[in-house]
Amino acid sequence: MSSTQPPPEIPSANPIDPVEHDYFTLNPAPASLQKHTSLARDFITTHASAGRRVVLVTSGGTTVPLERQTVRFIDNFSAGTRGATSAEYFLEAGYAVIFLYREFSLLPYSRHYSHATNCFLDFLHEGPNGSVLAREEYTEKMLAVLRKYQAAKRDNLLLTIPFVTINDYLFILRSIAQLMRPLGPSGLLYLAAAVSDFFVPNERMVEHKIQSTDASPNIRPQGAEDRQDQGQQDDEAFDNFDSSPLIPRSKRLVIDLDPVPKFLKNLVDGWAPEGMIVSFKLETDPEILVSKARYSLERYQHHLVIGNLLVTRKWEVVFVARSEEGEGIREEWIRVPRRRKTLSKIDIEVDREGGREDGGEKGKERPLDPKDLPDYEPEIEIESLIIPAVKKLHDTYIQRNTRES
Ligand code: PMT
């Protein structure tokens, strides 16, 4: 099919829910939606007819613009490491990968040479006759990465689609998830993106840059004008709004955000009901990670939640899924082995015993204590352990759902 044709409407498995209808009617579709949907459709069709599994990997953080002509926006920390690294291991495991990523965040393969501590140019030097060569000490690794990248491109196994805002993300996620339905259980959705929880809805967003002086009425807290009209400007200017009463309220920027609808439910029930869905849960408090991951699995009724903590996320994750027998929920920690430095040599300390043992429920593993973590990066990438484990669950999922259908 030509990539210039408009995407056909794919009927949802369930009738559209009013929240979904309102969101996708009241907020504008991104200008690139049609182009990206066409690319995704062609990609999925090609790989579905080759009987290949397709995974949608989402990666990086969504932004929340504060103005339509956006100068300022709210962002989050995610660099896209989890998503970009996972995409490489999915390719290695035989999947075709749609990589839905935050523009300018890390990309599979090039991630090895971008956002790095060393400048990319430090890997190069000038050779004879004005040529540019890789430094000898880096050649072996660069060549391996380059070959994998070129093979993925040559075999059309990697489609990259950028997003910037939460709105871009939601529109394109919905379209791609719906396009994946013909893949049935061979479709996998691996949602590693850090998606904003709050946003400014289109109807409340101002057109122009928010002014830092009170020249623009747009930034005035609601009611400020009324109070001025009533000659109460002095009261308003020095109201005791919080602990810094010397800053006039009219000089503050008070942002009123709506919650982003929880579309994971729509994804599971309507957009991609036959595919296997893996979501992530990020927390900073180790005490609530597992319970939040369990809650998410129960609430959305999908297939796997991968829990991770901000500070230990490169060292361990916890898989939370329904047990094989379908009764109850099980947790499994996946950890990268840690090295222990001794005076004379470096030992490998394999983390079979799990994390902290203090106060934990008997038989339950506990998250690692960040204080016990070394100050270097793990020797192996945790995604090299996560992806084979996800693939194994996906094998079972395909077997079970192909048998049943
Ligand atoms: O990029 P890195 O620096 O490597 O960091 C990786 C990560 C920590 C961001 C990643 O491992 C991770 O945990 N991502 C999910 C963060 C999170 O807690 O998301 P959430 O609770 O807002 O959403 C739960 C899940 O639903 C996520 O899988 C999210 O991608 C998905 N979601 C949420 C809301 C929404 N509207 N659409 C979604 O797809």
TrEMBL record:
| Molecular functions per Gene Ontology | phosphopantothenate--cysteine ligase activity
Stretches the record annotates as Disordered? 210-244, 350-375
Report any one BP term from Gene Ontology: coenzyme A biosynthetic process
What the entry lists under SUPFAM superfamilies is as follows: CoaB-like
Matching InterPro entries, A to Z? CoaB-like_sf (IPR035929)
Compositional bias (Basic and acidic residues): 350-374
Q: Under what name is this protein listed? A: Uncharacterized protein
Task: Provide the species name.
Answer: Oidiodendron maius (strain Zn)
